[in-house]
Amino acid sequence: MIAKTKKLINSFKYAFTGIATSFKTERNMKIHVLIMILVIIAGIVFKVSLLDWIILVIMFGLVISAELFNTALETIVDMITMEKNEKAKVAKDVAAGAVLVLAIASVVIGLIIFIPKILNFIK
Fold it and tell me: Known catalytic residues?
């Protein structure tokens, strides 16, 4: 039982280390986290509904997770080859594209949530 608990604790420790490493080394992760903080502040200011918060939290999790997967994939590709390789470039570009698609979808969802609130605030 103690060994299983220690393994579980180590799993969380490694996961948090991965998140911290990504935040320290990846510019885009810093951008995603900054935008997430700004959206949280806007959500508080504009008093978004519980459903809106659920949607926002899901989108935060998806974008941050996608960025983490992208970082992991880029790291693996760099471990395999440091030389110019067209397939390595495709893998990195496609992973980055996946993050971009998700980020754009998140922006659209954010606009759907916040534009009516901003317009009501202006009135």
Answer: 67
